């Protein structure tokens, strides 16, 4: 039995910065087929904020330990886990209680990471890069002449879309809500970066001329979602995967009818639940290679110890970030 397991728990949904609290618990040694992981880093994602607010697709039964993503090192394995060793660097695949010092997993709940990957940024591999990969690996997004347009282009997913699209020889139009992001996103590989307004839309469409826009990736909703939808060419696909603007998607009938647009959604959780472990492992192996090559980068904005969960969540909700807020569980337990 290990004591001093720091864990971030939620007892009641509410204001995120106060709904999450730190508790100290115990954890049992791994038994047959189990693996005990010591968490290193865990990011604060919009999904964590939504869960704390009580506004997410699958909410935990309260009280619950939370945290949709994290990585760490194996500190013990039970019998029957032949391919993993103490010290291996892994991330939690199908756990939603990652914000704690120790997690007891089964083999299919973790993915092994290459040792060369940095422990901080690789804790963000599970959600955003895989979402970007899925968004770009739709049947209709593989025409190299067709453009992809996305809003919230500075988000973790948005930056991963830029990186993975470049690797696939696909061209991106990127909409941002802050002018100071235009140059950094061009430097990150975005082909066109414009403001998320009607002038930005015109600038982008003028720049691409007659080329088609096949895919629109929406993480905002409201007017921004409609703007990127209206940039699509005939038969284009609009995928909603986020709702950062908290505004519903209200679509004029004519927009869909006249261009025969396809409107879809995408939720990584559903893919993780439905895909074979081998398929999932293969996708993450590709993403690890992109990270190792430096093609895929996952910037960090700020790092907090778990004791400072309230400030970590407050910072993650601020606007002027370019990177994720991480919780650093390598810090010593502070009695
Ligand atoms: N469907 C899925 O499976 C899936 C998977 C991963 C993520 N997501 C969703 O994708 C979205 C992005 O996630 P992330 O982790 O990549 O985000 P992130 O790195 O935390 O960045 C948040 C982004 O949202 C933008 N933003 C925040 N409030 C906004 C508003 N009111 N209007 C317009 N833009 C706003 C920010 O703009 P600035 O850069 O200007 O601050 C930033 O680019 C979230 O909605 C998340 O829930 C969904």
Global outline: globular
Largest sheet: 7 strands, mixed
Termini separation: 19 Å
- The H/E string reads EHEEHEEEEEHEHEHEHEHEHEHHEHE
CATH architecture of the largest domain: Alpha-Beta Complex
Q: CATH H level of the largest domain: which superfamily?
A: Medium-chain alcohol dehydrogenases, catalytic domain
**Which regions have little confidence, pLDDT < 50, spanning 5+ residues?**
none
What ligand molecules are bound, each kind once? Answer: NADP nicotinamide-adenine-dinucleotide phosphate
CATH topology of the largest domain: Quinone Oxidoreductase, Chain A, domain 1
User: Could you tell me the strand content as a percent range?
Assistant: 25-35%
Helix fraction?
25-40%
- Overall structural class, as computed from helix and strand content, comes to alpha/beta
Number of helices: 11
Brief overview, please?
With 335 residues, this protein is an alpha/beta fold.
What can you tell me about this protein's structure?
The chain has 335 residues and is α/β, with parallel strands linked by helices. It has two domains: 2-125 and 298-328, Medium-chain alcohol dehydrogenases, catalytic domain (Quinone Oxidoreductase, Chain A, domain 1); 128-269, Rossmann fold (3-Layer(aba) Sandwich). Helices cover 29% and strands 26% of the residues. It contains eleven helices and 16 strands. The protein has helices spanning 16-19, 46-53, 128-136, 156-167, 182-187, 198-208, 222-230, 253-259, 268-274, 277-292, 309-316; strands at 2-10, 20-27, 34-43, 64-65, 71-77, 89-92, 102-106, 110-112, 147-150, 171-176, 192-195, 213-218, 237-240, 262-265, 300-304, 324-328. The strands form three sheets. Strands 3, 5, 6, 7, 8, 15 and 16 form a seven-stranded mixed beta sheet that branches. A six-stranded parallel beta sheet has the order 11-10-9-12-13-14, with helices on both faces. A three-stranded antiparallel beta sheet has the order 2-1-4. Helix 3 (128-136) packs across helix 4 (156-167). It binds NADP nicotinamide-adenine-dinucleotide phosphate (NAP).
């Amino acid at each position: 039995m290990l004591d001093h397991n720091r864990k971030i728990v939620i007892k009641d949904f509410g204001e995120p910065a106060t709904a999450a609290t730190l508790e100290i618990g115990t954890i049992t040694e791994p038994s047959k087929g189990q693996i005990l992981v010591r968490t290193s880093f865990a990011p604060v994602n919009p999904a964590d904020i939504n869960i704390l607010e009580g506004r997410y697709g699958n909410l935990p039964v309260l009280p619950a330990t939370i945290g949709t993503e994290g990585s760490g090192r194996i500190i013990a394995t039970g019998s029957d886990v032949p391919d993993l060793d103490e010290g291996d660097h892994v991330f939690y695949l199908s756990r939603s209680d990652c914000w704690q010092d120790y997690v007891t997993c089964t083999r299919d709940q973790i993915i092994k990471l290459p040792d060369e990957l940095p422990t901080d940024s690789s804790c963000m591999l599970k959600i955003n890069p895989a979402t970007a990969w899925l968004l770009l690996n739709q049947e209709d997004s593989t025409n190299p002449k067709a453009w992809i347009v996305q809003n919230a282009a500075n988000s973790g997913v948005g930056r991963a879309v830029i990186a993975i699209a470049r690797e696939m020889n696909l061209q991106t139009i990127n909409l941002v809500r802050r002018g100071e992001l235009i140059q950094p996103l061009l430097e990150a590989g975005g082909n066109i970066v414009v403001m998320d307004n009607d002038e930005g839309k015109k600038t982008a469409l003028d720049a691409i001329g007659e080329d088609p826009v096949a895919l629109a990736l929406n993480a905002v909703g409201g007017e921004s979602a409609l703007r990127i939808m209206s940039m699509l060419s005939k038969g284009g696909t609009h995928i909603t995967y986020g709702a950062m603007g908290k505004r519903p998607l209200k679509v004029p009938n004519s927009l869909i009818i006249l261009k025969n647009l396809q409107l879809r959604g995408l939720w990584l959780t559903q893919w993780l639940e439905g895909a074979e472990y081998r398929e999932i492992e293969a996708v993450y192996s590709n993403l690890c290679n992109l990270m190792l090559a430096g093609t895929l980068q996952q910037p960090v904005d700020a790092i907090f110890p778990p004791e400072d969960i309230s400030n970590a969540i407050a910072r993650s909700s601020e606007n002027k970030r370019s990177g994720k807020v991480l919780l650093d569980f390598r810090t010593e337990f502070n009695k």
